[in-house]
Design brief:
Blueprint lengths: L1 H15 L1 E8 L6 H12 L3 E8 L8 H5 L4 E3 L8 H11 L5 H14 L3 H16 L4 E7 L3 H13 L3 E5 L2 H5 L2 H10 L3 E3 L2 H10 L6 E3 L27 E6 L8 H10 L6 E6 L5 H11 L5 E3 L5 H10 L2 E3 L15 H8 L4 E4 L4 H4 L7 E3 L4 H13 L1 H18 L2 H11 L17
Parallel strand pairs: 1-2, 1-4, 2-3, 4-5, 5-6, 6-7, 8-9, 8-11, 9-10, 11-12, 12-13
Helix pairs in contact: 4-6, 5-7, 6-7, 11-12, 11-16, 14-17
Amino acid sequence: MTGTADRAAAERRKAAGKVGIVVKGYPRLSETFIAQEILGLQQRGLDFRIISLRRPTDTATHPVHDAITAPVDYLPEYLHEDTGRVWRGWRTARRLSGYGRALRIWLRDLLRDPTPNRGRRFGQACVLAAELDPAITHLYAHFLHTPASVARYAAIMRGIPWSVSAHAKDIWTTPDWEKREKLADALWAVTCTRIGADHLAGLAADPDRVSLLYHGLDASGFPPPAHRSKRDGRDPHAPVTIVSVGRAVQKKGYDDVLGALRALPAELNWRFVHVGGGALATRLKQAADIMGLSERIEWRGAQPRAAVIDALAEADLFVLASKIAPDGDRDGLPNVLMEAQLMTLPVVATSVSAIPELIDNGVNGRLVRPGDSIALAAALEELIRDPAVRLRLAAAGRARVLGEFSADAGLDRLAAKFGLCGISPRAEGRPDAA
């Protein structure tokens, strides 16, 4: 029976063809949702290579990266650092049948966006097109901005289809003209939030090319602790632990979190744990010092998945104060919210972007207005003082994720777009397999 299943899987892979998955950087600790998707496609039999525009900068990886067996090709991140490779790539690419059209599209793009980054994208595309494995018949880019540009130019040069998965910053900071033209060229596009899907469908000449496809999560990787504490902030020897996981960047709203912590009543006993790197980490630590909060805060920096899960297991409450940054950057639907809920942590978040698609205020979490530190402090105070409410919201949050945000359904739909079909590799025997 196993031999028959293996032969069937091999036939599906052959029919689907080989795919080049274009990402901005690989592996990245902050983009586990991409790695989880790639692993899910691997488990469903997709034959692919990973093509990264940048080499990794994180010193650690997650177990999901170790499970991915596909080879990784790195393009020259800065063209001047590998001029020989870029020159050879261009000389080969310019002889490809689609080079002339790709060049015209790039020149039109460059006139509207005359930046060095735009030139770098075309150079990387030439290298990609020149060096592309001949077996690859489809390019699939994660993010609608830079990776999609490289995939688009290279696919046109090669005369093969390309598609894209859009997420958050790439949707809201890419000009509308660029989104329209990419959506017109792409075979199909998926995105992970309803608000993003509606926006892109409104720009697409053919709205049916855009599909909503939640990332979802594999719940087996997030075992909730057997018990949650009943700490209520009254005992100085047993403070309520508030945790947040996210990069220290403007759209994550950690300045608002610090403002909320400062506004909490003095008699409440709490500690705050932050997990994540980011450009604003030093500035946030300095702000915490000025506010007199440093003794209650632990900054752990970027951590591998096991350490993140440990932090969620040890905490009493999760907070993420997402907001729209001045440049328009914003979250989509942060996976960390679903991860916290799977770990039976009550969540306090903001009503920005797609977060209300996951959290109903008062039902399976607390939502406050983005940028409102006082409202955030009130929500935190309520949950610090009332462990019974925490437990109720946490149970409802886990049930919501298990019921509506399972990874398998979305991965099966994505695999079908690549020509693969059949039941998820882990579906048999699952309680929700029906």
